[in-house]
Amino acid sequence: MLDADFFRRWMTAATALVDREAERLTALDSPIGDADHGSNLQRGFTAVAATLEKEAPGTPGAVLTLAGRQLISTVGGASGPLYGTLLRRTGKALGDAAEVSAEQLAEALRTGVDAVRALGGAQPGDKTMVDALVPAVDALAESFAAARTAADEGARATTPLQARKGRASYLGERSIGHQDPGATSAALLFAALEEAAGE
Ligand code: ADP
Ligand code: MG
After folding, report:
1. Would the keyword ATP-binding be found if you checked this record's keyword annotation (predicted)?
2. pLDDT tens digit string along 20-44?
């Protein structure tokens, strides 16, 4: 079973990975965006880590809801509301249980990803974070490691796609040949989840 501590470890690991990969995320956001994705997420997750330490929420749902709210209020740009919605809706779906199973987490994350799709209007194949989130959640039924691999593959598979949502879509065909920054950071979220699970 996964308790609040597990979810705090997940967010701490995500913060560390975003810190480590911030420059790369911003570099990916240069040719097809406005070169701020790394700094956006760094600001957001730094705030998440600080708030979780200060408020010490006691349930899995409360950890994710609080983290999502922080992302929405601190990250400018498209990715803040989208990631914020992902975590907030996943947290809400977990309710106020003190511990949840991996299956419950997979189900809740599915709700969160559906909310991201509803908010942003992106389908798989539109070259967005959805291209990593959807296969990751599908693979979560198998294991945390499988979810991480699926997210990595989904992120890499955005390279040949033409963007149909977000800033990159303004470039039309010129968005082809670049990996999507948001799909890349979504894969980091699942790498952090695998780390938290100690797999
Ligand atoms: P901005 O584009 O406002 O500068 P970021 O650079 O932080 O915001 O995030 C860009 C990422 O957000 C993109 O790489 C893409 O994955 C994701 N994104 C943008 N618009 C959408 C959308 N409508 N649906 C899903 N993801 C999106
Ligand atoms: Mg950007």
Report:
1. no
2. 999 999 999 999 999 999 999 999 9
